[in-house]
Amino acid sequence: MRSHRGIGRIVDAARMSALAALLSLSLWAQSPPADSGFTRGTLLERDANASAGEFAIRMPDSEVLRFRFDSHTRVEREEHTIDVPGLAPGEPVEVASDSVDGSLLRYARTVRVLASAPPAPARRVPTFVPLRHYTLPEDPLAPQGDLTYAGVIGEIAGARLVLHTRDAGDQTILLRKDTRYLENGKTVEAGDLKPNQRVFVRAGRDPYGEIEGYQVIWGRILQPRE
Protein backbone atom coordinates (compact mmCIF):
# COMPACT_ATOMS: atom_id res chain seq x y z
CA MET A 1 0.00 0.00 0.00
CA ARG A 2 2.83 2.37 0.86
CA SER A 3 4.45 1.51 -2.46
CA HIS A 4 1.39 2.69 -4.40
CA ARG A 5 1.23 5.92 -2.39
CA GLY A 6 4.89 6.58 -3.13
CA ILE A 7 4.38 6.08 -6.85
CA GLY A 8 1.36 8.42 -6.79
CA ARG A 9 3.41 11.15 -5.11
CA ILE A 10 6.12 10.82 -7.74
CA VAL A 11 3.55 11.10 -10.56
CA ASP A 12 1.95 14.14 -8.95
CA ALA A 13 5.35 15.79 -8.56
CA ALA A 14 6.15 15.14 -12.20
CA ARG A 15 2.82 16.63 -13.27
CA MET A 16 3.40 19.73 -11.18
CA SER A 17 6.89 20.17 -12.66
CA ALA A 18 5.55 19.83 -16.20
CA LEU A 19 2.77 22.34 -15.48
CA ALA A 20 5.25 24.81 -13.99
CA ALA A 21 7.51 24.47 -17.04
CA LEU A 22 4.56 25.00 -19.41
CA LEU A 23 3.43 28.04 -17.45
CA SER A 24 6.93 29.50 -17.54
CA LEU A 25 7.19 28.87 -21.28
CA SER A 26 3.82 30.50 -21.92
CA LEU A 27 4.80 33.53 -19.85
CA TRP A 28 8.06 33.91 -21.77
CA ALA A 29 6.39 33.54 -25.18
CA GLN A 30 3.57 35.93 -24.35
CA SER A 31 5.61 38.79 -22.89
CA PRO A 32 8.17 41.03 -24.62
CA PRO A 33 11.59 41.28 -22.98
CA ALA A 34 11.44 43.02 -19.63
CA ASP A 35 13.74 45.79 -20.77
CA SER A 36 11.60 46.63 -23.80
CA GLY A 37 8.35 48.55 -23.22
CA PHE A 38 7.77 49.01 -26.95
CA THR A 39 6.75 46.24 -29.35
CA ARG A 40 6.29 46.58 -33.09
CA GLY A 41 4.33 44.25 -35.29
CA THR A 42 1.28 43.81 -37.50
CA LEU A 43 -2.19 43.83 -36.00
CA LEU A 44 -3.81 40.40 -36.42
CA GLU A 45 -7.11 40.84 -34.59
CA ARG A 46 -8.83 42.91 -31.91
CA ASP A 47 -12.06 42.81 -29.96
CA ALA A 48 -14.50 44.96 -31.88
CA ASN A 49 -17.18 47.22 -30.43
CA ALA A 50 -15.70 46.96 -26.93
CA SER A 51 -14.21 49.53 -24.58
CA ALA A 52 -12.03 46.82 -23.05
CA GLY A 53 -10.69 43.55 -24.31
CA GLU A 54 -7.71 42.05 -26.07
CA PHE A 55 -5.83 42.36 -29.35
CA ALA A 56 -3.00 40.41 -30.96
CA ILE A 57 -0.03 41.42 -33.10
CA ARG A 58 2.42 39.41 -35.13
CA MET A 59 6.05 40.39 -34.66
CA PRO A 60 8.66 40.39 -37.48
CA ASP A 61 9.90 36.96 -36.34
CA SER A 62 6.31 35.62 -36.68
CA GLU A 63 5.81 35.39 -32.88
CA VAL A 64 2.26 36.36 -31.86
CA LEU A 65 1.68 38.48 -28.75
CA ARG A 66 -1.63 39.39 -27.11
CA PHE A 67 -2.32 42.53 -25.08
CA ARG A 68 -5.09 43.80 -22.86
CA PHE A 69 -6.66 47.22 -23.41
CA ASP A 70 -9.32 49.35 -21.80
CA SER A 71 -10.83 52.82 -22.13
CA HIS A 72 -7.59 54.37 -20.85
CA THR A 73 -5.48 52.87 -23.65
CA ARG A 74 -4.46 55.68 -25.99
CA VAL A 75 -4.60 54.86 -29.72
CA GLU A 76 -3.23 57.19 -32.41
CA ARG A 77 -3.32 57.12 -36.17
CA GLU A 78 -1.78 60.00 -38.16
CA GLU A 79 -1.90 62.23 -35.04
CA HIS A 80 -5.63 61.55 -34.57
CA THR A 81 -6.94 59.79 -31.47
CA ILE A 82 -9.11 56.72 -32.09
CA ASP A 83 -9.90 53.55 -30.11
CA VAL A 84 -8.74 49.95 -30.45
CA PRO A 85 -11.88 48.81 -32.33
CA GLY A 86 -11.03 51.50 -34.89
CA LEU A 87 -7.80 49.71 -35.80
CA ALA A 88 -7.75 47.62 -38.94
CA PRO A 89 -6.15 44.16 -39.07
CA GLY A 90 -2.98 44.32 -41.14
CA GLU A 91 -1.93 47.77 -39.94
CA PRO A 92 1.64 48.12 -38.62
CA VAL A 93 1.54 49.23 -34.99
CA GLU A 94 3.82 50.06 -32.10
CA VAL A 95 2.59 49.11 -28.62
CA ALA A 96 3.86 50.57 -25.36
CA SER A 97 2.91 48.13 -22.61
CA ASP A 98 3.34 47.30 -18.93
CA SER A 99 3.43 43.93 -17.21
CA VAL A 100 0.43 43.05 -15.04
CA ASP A 101 0.88 41.04 -11.83
CA GLY A 102 -0.82 37.67 -12.03
CA SER A 103 -1.57 37.94 -15.76
CA LEU A 104 0.14 36.46 -18.77
CA LEU A 105 -0.99 39.43 -20.87
CA ARG A 106 0.64 42.84 -20.79
CA TYR A 107 -1.44 45.97 -20.55
CA ALA A 108 -1.28 48.27 -23.59
CA ARG A 109 -0.83 51.88 -22.49
CA THR A 110 -0.54 53.31 -26.02
CA VAL A 111 -0.97 51.93 -29.52
CA ARG A 112 0.41 53.95 -32.41
CA VAL A 113 -0.25 53.12 -36.04
CA LEU A 114 3.00 53.32 -37.98
CA ALA A 115 3.12 54.96 -41.36
CA SER A 116 3.39 52.43 -44.15
CA ALA A 117 6.26 52.81 -46.58
CA PRO A 118 5.11 54.79 -49.60
CA PRO A 119 4.79 52.71 -52.76
CA ALA A 120 7.74 52.87 -55.08
CA PRO A 121 7.12 55.27 -57.94
CA ALA A 122 6.15 53.54 -61.10
CA ARG A 123 9.02 53.26 -63.47
CA ARG A 124 8.45 55.41 -66.47
CA VAL A 125 8.71 53.42 -69.65
CA PRO A 126 9.71 55.55 -72.61
CA THR A 127 7.09 55.45 -75.29
CA PHE A 128 7.78 55.56 -78.98
CA VAL A 129 6.79 58.85 -80.51
CA PRO A 130 6.43 58.62 -84.27
CA LEU A 131 8.09 61.34 -86.30
CA ARG A 132 5.56 63.89 -87.34
CA HIS A 133 5.42 65.07 -90.86
CA TYR A 134 6.94 68.45 -91.44
CA THR A 135 4.53 70.92 -92.98
CA LEU A 136 6.02 73.88 -94.76
CA PRO A 137 4.62 77.30 -93.89
CA GLU A 138 2.52 78.44 -96.78
CA ASP A 139 3.41 81.75 -98.43
CA PRO A 140 0.52 82.92 -100.63
CA LEU A 141 2.92 84.87 -102.84
CA ALA A 142 5.43 82.02 -103.28
CA PRO A 143 4.94 79.63 -106.20
CA GLN A 144 3.82 76.21 -104.99
CA GLY A 145 4.69 74.03 -107.94
CA ASP A 146 3.17 70.71 -108.93
CA LEU A 147 6.36 68.62 -109.00
CA THR A 148 8.21 66.98 -106.10
CA TYR A 149 11.56 65.18 -106.13
CA ALA A 150 13.55 63.38 -103.48
CA GLY A 151 17.13 62.34 -104.05
CA VAL A 152 20.83 63.03 -103.53
CA ILE A 153 22.59 66.12 -104.85
CA GLY A 154 25.17 65.04 -107.38
CA GLU A 155 26.45 68.45 -108.51
CA ILE A 156 25.90 72.13 -107.84
CA ALA A 157 26.92 74.50 -110.63
CA GLY A 158 25.95 78.15 -110.25
CA ALA A 159 22.18 78.39 -110.23
CA ARG A 160 21.66 74.71 -111.10
CA LEU A 161 21.86 71.46 -109.23
CA VAL A 162 21.76 67.90 -110.51
CA LEU A 163 19.62 65.62 -108.38
CA HIS A 164 20.01 61.84 -108.51
CA THR A 165 16.52 60.35 -107.98
CA ARG A 166 15.51 56.73 -107.79
CA ASP A 167 12.40 56.92 -109.97
CA ALA A 168 13.02 59.84 -112.32
CA GLY A 169 16.78 59.45 -112.84
CA ASP A 170 19.00 62.55 -112.89
CA GLN A 171 17.11 65.82 -112.84
CA THR A 172 18.63 69.26 -113.47
CA ILE A 173 16.86 71.84 -111.33
CA LEU A 174 17.17 75.61 -111.69
CA LEU A 175 17.62 77.56 -108.47
CA ARG A 176 15.74 80.86 -108.47
CA LYS A 177 16.53 84.02 -106.54
CA ASP A 178 13.46 83.37 -104.37
CA THR A 179 14.05 79.64 -103.86
CA ARG A 180 13.69 78.84 -100.17
CA TYR A 181 16.12 76.52 -98.35
CA LEU A 182 15.18 74.81 -95.10
CA GLU A 183 17.42 72.61 -92.92
CA ASN A 184 15.71 70.79 -90.04
CA GLY A 185 12.81 73.21 -90.31
CA LYS A 186 14.92 76.40 -90.23
CA THR A 187 15.47 78.78 -93.12
CA VAL A 188 19.11 78.78 -94.32
CA GLU A 189 21.06 80.12 -97.26
CA ALA A 190 21.73 78.54 -100.65
CA GLY A 191 25.40 78.22 -99.69
CA ASP A 192 24.41 75.56 -97.11
CA LEU A 193 23.63 73.13 -99.94
CA LYS A 194 26.35 70.53 -100.39
CA PRO A 195 26.91 67.65 -102.81
CA ASN A 196 25.81 64.22 -101.53
CA GLN A 197 23.08 65.78 -99.39
CA ARG A 198 19.74 64.03 -99.52
CA VAL A 199 17.05 66.63 -100.17
CA PHE A 200 13.42 67.05 -101.01
CA VAL A 201 12.54 69.57 -103.73
CA ARG A 202 9.20 71.17 -104.50
CA ALA A 203 9.36 72.44 -108.06
CA GLY A 204 7.50 73.44 -111.21
CA ARG A 205 8.25 74.20 -114.85
CA ASP A 206 9.05 77.63 -116.24
CA PRO A 207 7.63 78.93 -119.56
CA TYR A 208 10.47 77.18 -121.39
CA GLY A 209 9.70 73.80 -119.84
CA GLU A 210 12.74 73.70 -117.53
CA ILE A 211 12.37 72.52 -113.93
CA GLU A 212 12.88 75.25 -111.37
CA GLY A 213 12.99 74.64 -107.63
CA TYR A 214 10.79 76.63 -105.27
CA GLN A 215 11.74 74.92 -102.01
CA VAL A 216 14.72 72.70 -101.12
CA ILE A 217 14.44 70.88 -97.81
CA TRP A 218 16.81 68.55 -95.95
CA GLY A 219 17.46 67.21 -92.48
CA ARG A 220 17.42 63.84 -90.73
CA ILE A 221 14.18 64.23 -88.80
CA LEU A 222 12.13 65.85 -91.54
CA GLN A 223 9.62 64.01 -93.64
CA PRO A 224 8.23 66.67 -95.97
CA ARG A 225 4.66 66.27 -97.03
CA GLU A 226 4.39 65.54 -100.73
Explain how this protein is built:
The protein is about 15% helix and about 40% strand. The protein has about 230 residues and is mainly beta.
SS content category: mainly beta
Helix content: 10-25%
The CATH topology label of the domain at 32-113 is OB fold (Dihydrolipoamide Acetyltransferase, E2P)
Q: What is the annotated CATH architecture of the domain at 32-113? A: Beta Barrel
What is the arithmetic mean of pLDDT?
78
Strand line-up of the largest beta sheet: 1-2-3-7-6
Distance linking N and C termini: 120 Å
CATH top level of the domain at 32-113 is Mainly Beta
- Number of separate helices: 1
**Approximately how much beta-strand content do the residues carry?**
35-45%
Helix/strand order: HEEEEEEEEEEEEE
Major sheet size, sense and barrel closure: 5 strands, mixed, barrel
Task: Provide the fold topology.
Blueprint: H1 2-30, E1 38-46, E2 53-58, E3 64-69, E4 74-77, E5 80-82, E6 92-98, E7 106-113, E8 147-157, E9 160-165, E10 170-183, E11 186-188, E12 198-205, E13 211-218
Characteristic terms for this protein:
mainly beta; 226 residues; disordered C terminus; five-stranded mixed barrel; OB fold (Dihydrolipoamide Acetyltransferase, E2P); 13% helix
Short description:
The chain is 13% helix and 41% strand.
